[in-house]
């Protein structure tokens, strides 16, 4: 399938590792001009080299913290300055700490709000004028399966990922007339550093080994295994492509069938 991404410009935040990097690589392989943003200059430069080696295309790396309004504006501006356009925005940010309701004070709630909801608001706000001017655009918000089914001991993520899905629905209704399609993609148990860390924390809480935690999760997944970042990225790229002409306002889960919610 032709994803119709040749010459299109894509900005991926938290693009130096994990799901963001895998998505950036897949976009570049499909012919897109890819800009990645992240806080870590070291990880950014390594990811840039990896994207270029995998795709044979130049990529741009921008040091930016999505918690900061000025950094968000700078990341979007870097994409537009490079190619004169911005066609696709992939919003992504590291997950907040795990834990239950009584473990978090106001500071923790406000930090998660800024990182996982306001970062999306700001990125979309900066990107929309360029997409509206072009008469088309794609926005893909990376969230979690918790938008459909809350996850135990991840209350901060549960609340703010659901907020991003509500934003996705609202944006899809408001900007469909401008040719802008907006969706969210929720990963299940995908092999990333974040999932390894969550498994380790779960093992510590229960007095289990990490392998026991993995086995318990895999028993809940019809496909019987964790997914790979590359598998996840294929869904992100389709929804963020111009081959996608009629899917908007949706939450697509990439979870091997783990979530049973309708």
UniProtKB/TrEMBL annotation:
**Keyword Chloroplast assigned:** no
Q: Which domain of life is it from?
A: Bacteria
Which keywords appear in this protein's UniProt record, sorted alphabetically? Answer: Oxidoreductase
Q: Does the keyword Oxidoreductase apply?
A: yes
Task: Spell out the Gene3D superfamilies in the cross-references.
Answer: NAD(P)-binding Rossmann-like Domain
The record's listing under CDD domains reads: BKR_like_SDR_like (cd05344)
According to its UniProt entry, the protein's GO biological process terms are: bile acid metabolic process
**MF terms (GO), sorted A to Z:** oxidoreductase activity
Q: Which family does it belong to?
A: Belongs to the short-chain dehydrogenases/reductases (SDR) family.
- The name of this protein is 3-oxoacyl-ACP reductase
Q: What is the lineage of its organism?
A: Bacteria, Bacillati, Bacillota, Bacilli, Bacillales
């Amino acid at each position: 399938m032709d994803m119709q991404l040749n010459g299109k410009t894509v900005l991926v935040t938290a693009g130096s590792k994990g799901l963001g990097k895998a998505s950036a690589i897949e976009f570049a392989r499909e012919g897109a001009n890819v800009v990645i943003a992240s806080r870590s200059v070291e990880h950014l430069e390594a990811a840039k080299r990896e994207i270029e080696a995998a795709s044979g295309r130049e990529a741009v790396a921008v040091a930016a913290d999505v918690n900061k309004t000025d950094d968000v504006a700078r990341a979007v501006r870097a994409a537009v300055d490079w190619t004169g356009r911005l066609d696709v925005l992939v919003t992504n940010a590291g997950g907040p700490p795990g834990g239950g309701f009584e473990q978090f004070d106001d500071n923790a709630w406000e930090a998660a709000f800024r990182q996982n909801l306001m970062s999306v608001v700001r990125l979309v706000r900066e990107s929309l004028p360029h997409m509206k001017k072009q008469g088309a655009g794609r926005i893909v918000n990376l969230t979690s399966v918790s938008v459909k089914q809350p996850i135990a001991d991840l209350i901060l993520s549960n609340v703010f990922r659901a907020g991003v899905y509500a934003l996705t629905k609202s944006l899809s209704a408001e900007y469909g007339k401008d040719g802008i399609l907006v969706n969210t993609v929720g990963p299940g148990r995908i092999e990333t550093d974040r999932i390894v860390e969550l498994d380790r924390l779960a093992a510590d809480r229960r007095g289990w080994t990490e392998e026991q935690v993995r086995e318990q999760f895999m028993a809940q997944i019809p496909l019987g295994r964790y997914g790979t970042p590359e598998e996840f990225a294929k869904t992100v790229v389709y929804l963020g492509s111009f081959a996608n002409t009629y899917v908007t306002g949706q939450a697509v889960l990439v979870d091997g069938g783990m979530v049973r919610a309708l």
